[in-house]
């Protein structure tokens, strides 16, 4: 791994030391700068270029999101990894487009994947291999976007439909639409998000009042009239037919 400076931010001394020790398995101790509060963050950012920041979401005087805003203003190229002991804060973190999201205490093997993701982010982006951490009924799960056929809002739940299974996620469809915008997904209806590569054809009723997307999996999803022009444009570029 190429040399980089890491900023580790955590207001809990015991947690800070534990995380620093685990980070030192991947980078030298002298390249790990620690901060316990906003003042120490400001001091560190002014004196040292930081390539990667591990930011505790919950801080006593401010929060990790505000600190992230400051870091990105001071050093726009810094990549962010959010840390927290509370998984329910995961969805909000996506507004800040972090490199990764980790639960405390840090898992050493999982941390290795974070550094692999950092290395990939510094080169050409291969979205086919990227994974998202999505909060489910039993905690966070890592999902490769290409695994998702479509997402449906059913009752009060949002369900990911994969090739051989389905999983409930806590994020709203609006949040999921934003997360998946760079991965070839389209909001075809207020209750559905579909992977464009899964659409085999689009048909309309005899009177042209309703539209349906037919997927390679055999599933069929409704298409809103207002979404049709943009969907037609997207699919025409991929050679998908309208019938």
Could you please describe the fold and organization of this structure?
The chain contains seven helices and 16 strands. It has 243 residues and is of the alpha/beta class. A five-stranded parallel beta sheet has the order 2-1-3-4-5, sandwiched between helices. Strands 10-9-8-12-11 form a five-stranded antiparallel beta sheet, covered by helices on one side. A four-stranded mixed beta sheet has the order 15-14-13-16, with helices on one face. The protein starts with 5 loop residues before the first strand and ends with a strand.
Helix content: 25-40%
Strand order of the largest sheet: 2-1-3-4-5
Radius of gyration: 21 Å
User: What class would the helix/strand composition place it in?
Assistant: alpha/beta
Q: Give the N-terminus to C-terminus distance in angstroms.
A: 52 Å
Instruction: Kindly estimate the percentage of residues that lie in beta strands according to DSSP.
Output: 25-35%
Averaged pLDDT: 85
Low-confidence stretches: none
Quaternary structure classification: single chain
User: What is the string of SSEs from the N terminus onward?
Assistant: EHEHEHEHEHEEEEEHEEEEEHE
Q: Sheet bearing the most strands, described?
A: 5 strands, parallel
Contiguous helical run count: 7
**What is the molecular shape?**
elongated
By DSSP, the count of extended strands is: 16
């Amino acid at each position: 791994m190429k040399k980089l400076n890491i900023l580790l931010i955590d207001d809990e001394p015991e947690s800070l030391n534990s995380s620093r020790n685990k980070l030192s398995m991947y980078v030298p101790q002298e390249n790990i700068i620690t901060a316990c509060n906003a003042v120490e963050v400001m001091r560190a950012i002014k004196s040292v270029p930081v390539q990667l920041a591990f930011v505790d979401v919950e801080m006593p005087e401010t929060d990790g999101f505000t600190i992230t805003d400051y870091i990105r203003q001071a050093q726009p190229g810094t990549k962010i990894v959010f840390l927290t002991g509370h998984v329910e804060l995961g969805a909000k973190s996506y507004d800040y487009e972090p490199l990764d999201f980790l639960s405390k205490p840090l898992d050493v093997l999982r941390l290795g994947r974070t550094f692999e993701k950092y290395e990939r982010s510094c080169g050409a982006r291969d979205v086919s291999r990227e994974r998202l951490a999505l909060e489910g009924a039993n905690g966070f799960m890592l999902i490769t976007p290409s695994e998702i056929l479509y997402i449906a809002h059913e009752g009060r739940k949002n369900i990911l439909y994969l090739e051989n299974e389905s999983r409930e996620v806590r994020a709203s469809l609006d949040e999921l639409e934003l997360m998946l915008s760079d991965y070839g997904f389209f909001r075809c209806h207020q209750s559905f998000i579909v992977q464009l590569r899964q659409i085999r054809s689009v048909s309309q009723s005899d009177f042209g009042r309703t539209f349906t997307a037919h997927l390679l999996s055999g599933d069929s999803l409704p298409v809103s009239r207002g979404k049709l022009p943009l969907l037609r444009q997207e699919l025409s570029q991929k050679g998908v037919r309208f019938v």
